[in-house]
Amino acid sequence: MDVQHRSAVLLEWKNLTVSVRPSAASSKTEWTGRPGHQQRKETIILRNACGAVRSDNLVAIMGPSGAGKTTLLAAISMRITGATTVHGKVLINGLYVTRTQMKQLTGFVPQYEIALQSLTVAEHLSFAAKLKNVGYVAALRIANELGLQGCLGTRIAHLSGGERKKVNLAGELLTEPQMLFCDEPTTGLDSYNAASVMKTLQSLVENGRRAVVCTIHDPPSQVFQRFSDVILMQDGGTVLYQGPTSDRVAFFHSIGKVLPVTGNPADYYFQLVSPGGSVSPASEAEEAIHRFETIRKACRENIARKCLTTRYHQAMVIQKLTSDRHRVCRARQLAILLHRTALHSIRNVREYLTVTAIFMFTSVVIASLYYEVRPLTQTSIQDIRGALFLMISELVYTTSYGVFYTFPAEMPLIRREIGEKTYSLSVYYAHKVLYSVPRAFFESFLFIGVIYASVGFTTDFLTYCCMSLVTGTASVLAMAYGYLLSCTTGSTNLAIEISNIVFLAFMLLGGLYLNVNAFPLFKYLSCFFFASEGVSVYYWLSVGSIPCDSETRTGGNETVTCLPNGIAVLEDAGYATSYEALELNYLVMAVQIVLIHLLAYVLLRRFVRKAGFY
């Protein structure tokens, strides 16, 4: 037995039926069941599909919009997600496989390119190879095979549509799958790029190396001619014809349909299966379809017998499943993702510098408003309180708002790479958190440094470091709340709206507008309180004496209290009066940061699973 036949892979699907339950808000909801126990009736979008694909097949799944092309592709690749129910069997070389095992054995190329646009082709493939435990030499070989050697140093954002499709394709070929699924590989491409992509796909199935199954909509004739097999679907989720493109003439002739000699065959197929088009007006046509499908079934069984007569074929699949050499440990995943994100940030440094400049302009405004304010009089106490609170409020707000865009902006990438088991979602979340922590402390030291140098704080450098440290820690807590709100809503706009209410409550508990002694427990929920009390303690404890006004302290029914030193100022605000008391604050913040991130991760995982992976 030669190598080609020994490595042949057969994918079979039997009686696949996919149904989806309409949402409660749908106006077309139908109910089933006895009164009191009714449930929404599921809508069938794929009916009793059977078929087989083997190595050396380049298969086109064609049909009008809504016929179930993508549903069939997702079902046979076991990538179907959402509120769907799947009945039927999918086998590889006669073996039942789980969804995870199917992802180990096959590759899936989504319709739209999903990658960090700032990376070059070489960098993208390098990171993908590392995450899939593949050598970079193999990645370069695949790039050369797909004709990407001339654009390895080009950023993905600057590639043509066809080149981007090939980059996506190269990422999937790293694990050497013997079955490849492509969703609309020519969508959005001109005829030249579409033909180039199809030529590449055709080369992948040569000599029985693998099978490629594609959904495609209205292909031009030069694209259609490259397919060896076609699955033609009609409205209602049923399959009209499946088999070699060379047999299509005989099939349609058997049901009384003569294909035009000239023109694009795909155009005729779409007219035939479009809603309202009649395929079999006579009973003879139904008999012809049944007769032809019986022949096709015998042909598929013959293929199965040839591929599955020995145990070697199943052993090959089992060996690939048990080796699982394309996964790296979580620590390695974390290091790779941190490196990739750092490189992406460096490529977008101009944007970061612009945002930071605007952020620092706010600190300059605050510094100019409170320039050379010193605790020399009783009236200056209020000025310094305002300067400190405005400083930490602006810092906490800006830091928390900065993370609202993280997950919504990267959700397509997350869904794609998590869906293909490229890395763990927990590792992805952890790398985002770890990458943001140094940024929070850096911006805290920078922001406070500008204000500290301009306002007349009569304290030393150590006090500045302590104030920056406590505000940095509070900023990390604010980031955790930002991640939580972002993961809870899944929408940037909704997260911002909810955060306005939440952070307003937190600000009131910060100590400037309300005396925190009235809220002995609730104050520990506020990141504003931790930052405000921290900077106040570090600043006011070093202030030994504040002169009292020589004028009378009473006027009418109002008594003006003199605050002779920094401790008195802290007591008046309800803050702690010792450095040791801040140790509890640091502990509470650390616990809250961990718990909030755990909750945010759980909500993110739930959201990703509900939204699906493709």
Automatic annotation (TrEMBL):
Upper lineage: Eukaryota, Metazoa, Ecdysozoa, Arthropoda, Hexapoda
SMART domains cross-referenced by the UniProt entry: AAA
Protein name: ABC transporter domain-containing protein
PANTHER family from the UniProt entry: ABC TRANSPORTER G FAMILY MEMBER 28, PROTEIN BROWN
Entry GO CC: plasma membrane
Species of origin: Anopheles atroparvus
One Pfam match: ABC2_membrane
Entries under InterPro entries matching the protein: AAA+_ATPase, ABC2_TM, ABC_transporter-like_ATP-bd, ABC_transporter-like_CS, ABCG_dom, ABCG_transporters, P-loop_NTPase
Domain of life of the source: Eukaryota
Keyword Iron: no
Intracellular or extracellular location(s): Membrane
Ranges of residues in domain ABC transporter: 11-261
Main location: membrane
One example GO MF annotation: ATP hydrolysis activity
Entry membrane topology: Multi-pass membrane protein
Family: Belongs to the ABC transporter superfamily. ABCG family. Eye pigment precursor importer (TC 3.A.1.204) subfamily.
SUPFAM superfamilies for the chain: P-loop containing nucleoside triphosphate hydrolases
Segments crossing the lipid bilayer: 352-373, 385-407, 433-454, 461-482, 494-514, 521-541, 584-604
